[in-house]
């Protein structure tokens, strides 16, 4: 009888400790972050109204792929893991139930097929914080879109996100086997993570400009139109004359891909950090205009004082909450605000202080 009673009590405690989260005013980013935090905290969650503010709410292919990957990595218990599902229950169960923050994650090698042109870079971003609880190296090979709308292009991940995070202790690399543009996708990347101990993040000031790196990519089907070269020229003409912004690297690449497409990433190096700006080719849009779009975003950044761009501000928040520190960002975007609120619900609040035309985000850290 004692055993039965103890089992019942444990079950009730586990049930009562499930964290309930409402995604009715958020999208896929909210879901990915919530799943990652659940793993980091080793805490079961119930997410309702998944992607509730989207015209087609519920899980789409790329969101389901992230959920399934998290389940496989943790050998987690899950319900609602199907296309269109608007309610998910996810219990990572890495250590003992009811003891948040005590889990450790085994490494290994995994493969994920997102399907169509679902974003591989968003999947990678969701997995990056897990390096802080790894017991051994982790390798995840993902098939899907590498350069698609509403997500960081592959070169942004490889040349902006990862180099910046490596400065603060994250051990991560991303290898590309094949590019995948919309609509067919078919790209393949491998994310490699090693057990990592983060250092406190200090990105409160920019420092002097150190140069510009340019990465322009075209599918082989567009090579006869010199798309990669024209994108690069469009960006550089727009940035001509910016003091201290000499070109230190220029890469124009032709790649094999199931779909025609192109992408451009500009990386601005400066005294304390890295900022990135990107644009994707579109049917009917001249390649020069693609380059100009990325350059215009870089111009807006250079007019301010923040050391990171508006998209990187969002990507750094979980690491800021884990390691502690200060980050000056250009603006609190909707994504930043939503992720800050979600972190606060897990007890990892981010302080926000307006300072002139920028905002300083700070945290004492929790790891």
Automatic annotation (TrEMBL):
It catalyses: a 3'-end 3'-phospho-ribonucleotide-RNA + ATP = a 3'-end 2',3'-cyclophospho-ribonucleotide-RNA + AMP + diphosphate. ATP binds at residues 311-315. The keyword Manganese does not apply. Residues 206-302 form the RNA 3'-terminal phosphate cyclase insert domain. Residues 26-346 form the RNA 3'-terminal phosphate cyclase domain. One of its GO terms (cellular component) is cytoplasm. Its main location: cytoplasm. InterPro entries: RNA3'-term_phos_cycl_insert, RNA3'_phos_cyclase_dom, RNA3'_phos_cyclase_dom_sf, RNA3'_term_phos_cyc, RNA3'_term_phos_cyc_type_1, RNA3'_term_phos_cycl-like_CS, RNA3'P_cycl/enolpyr_Trfase_a/b, RPTC_insert. It holds the Pfam family RTC_insert. Keywords: ATP-binding, Cytoplasm, Ligase, Nucleotide-binding. It is found in: Cytoplasm. Belongs to the RNA 3'-terminal cyclase family. Type 1 subfamily. PANTHER family: RNA 3' TERMINAL PHOSPHATE CYCLASE, RNA 3'-TERMINAL PHOSPHATE CYCLASE. This is RNA 3'-terminal phosphate cyclase. The gene is rtcA.
